[in-house]
Amino acid sequence: MTPSSHEKPADSREPADAHEKTADACGEPADLVITGCTVLVHDDRARIGFQEDAAVVVRDGVVDAVTSAAAVDGLPAADRIDARGQVALPGLINCHTHAPMVALRGLAEDLPTEEWFNDVVWPVESNLTARDVELGARLACAEMIRAGVTTFADHYFAMDAVAAVVAECGMRALLGQAYFSSQGPRGREASLEFALRHRDTAGGRVTTALAPHAPYTVTDADLAATAVLARDHGLPVHLHAAENRAQTDASLARHGVTPVEVLERTGILDTDVLIAHGTGIVEADLPLLARAGGRTAVATAPRGYLKFAWPTTTPVRALRDIGVPVGIATDGAASNNSLDVWESMALTSLVQKSTEGDPRWLTARQALHHATVQSADAVGLRDTVGRIAPGWRADLVLVDLTGPHTQPVHDLAATLVHSARSADVRTTIVDGRVLMRDRELLTLDVPAVVRELGERLPALTDRGHGRRLQEYDT
């Protein structure tokens, strides 16, 4: 992961010339041609622009050309999509979630964080089977595909099941098998074994990470051992840290250091690390994160912070100023109720404006930058996804802006962030494969999943046994 340049305003109708490619548009047959759309493009400084009446040519799962609609008239293709009235965006990226937790959506409502974990979530998760995880992952992937999400970073249990679902449904994912120190050495070993077993599988669509849960559930010794394993095997680390200010305050009171300082002294910050949430990051942490040399990224999921009434949010502006990428996320549906990254993008902009007391920050263009380039950077896919440009994987979505709630369009970036909805996504494509066309899911059977999951819910949600997977005591 490397820091992205600061997004600066660009003319909303000016194409990014660096991504214009027409020379071979009328050459050999294409696998897919999308024509007549407006394409969100980036220039060589990662600033966004919009190319109108454009076409995207896809060959072998890669964007081969972004050109004019006229240039592909008559170009033979195995599949064509007429996208007039639609905007082509890089597929959205959910930078931190627990996909199978859709099975717990709405189960623990209106509770403080400690009660949410100890009284409901961790007792229920002690019942989890691999089949529960698989069904939850199927339902989650269906929800994300329909919301225009093409890639997600998942941090959960029984992750072999999630990897199998990703391979089948066609999405892209960064997957990590979560572990606690209470599991003993076997937890850490299983996380490594999963990461090595599934790395670069599903035709390269699955990448993997080591996934210690958090500094308050994983000992310093285990974090240090994880850092060594990450360096030895070339793996990133995905974990929760400084999730809220209470965790930071408790860490300072008990240990004299912040959670970020724990990551620094255990060597985690010397790896490629994705930190979930970071609303408890304090000013003293910023030099440590800056010294990490762009190897650290943070995922922000503001809806959950609002639900838990956390007093602070991810310090996006401060992190951006020191070159730390901030990706957009939802967290799990048990806390967020939704895997809608579209909503998270809009909330990130609004919450940042309120927190900073500055309506000029975070702009719609900046929000789109975080949802595309910075999110790709956060999940370690900077040169793979996050742009619609020659050489990038063909992960993109088509958004219909003909509805009354998106008209008229005075500022296309603002319309996309603040007016459009996930339901406006018509088509979702990963690696050039159409996963949803005209709102029809093509790779997942949702009714069958819902039926079986419903049958399993009584056993899954039973708390009469008195067990807990873990204790939340920060």
Quick overview:
The chain has 474 residues and is α/β, with parallel strands linked by helices. Helix content is 35%, strand content 23%. It starts with 29 loop residues before the first strand and ends in a 13-residue tail after the last helix.
Can you tell me about this structure?
This protein is α/β, with parallel strands linked by helices and 474 residues long. The protein contains 15 helices and 17 strands. The chain has helices at residues 113-125, 130-146, 159-169, 185-198, 220-233, 245-255, 259-265, 286-291, 302-307, 316-321, 333-336, 341-356, 364-378, 412-419, 446-461; strands at residues 30-42, 48-59, 62-68, 77-82, 86-90, 92-97, 149-156, 172-179, 206-212, 237-241, 273-277, 296-300, 326-328, 396-400, 425-430, 433-437, 440-441. Strands 1, 2, 3, 4, 5, 14, 15, 16 and 17 form a nine-stranded mixed beta sheet that branches. The protein has a four-stranded parallel beta sheet with strand order 6-7-8-9. The longest helix has 17 residues, at 130-146. The radius of gyration is 21 Å and the shape is globular.
The geometry reads as globular
Tell me roughly what share of residues is in helical segments. Answer: 25-40%
Radius of gyration: 21 Å
- Poorly predicted residue ranges: 1-24
Q: What is the SS-derived class?
A: alpha/beta
Gap between N and C termini: 29 Å
Mean pLDDT metric? 93
How much β-strand is present in the residues?
A: 15-25%
Query: For the report, how would you describe the main beta sheet?
Result: 9 strands, mixed
Assembly state:
single chain
The total strand number stands at 17
SS field, number of helical segments: 15
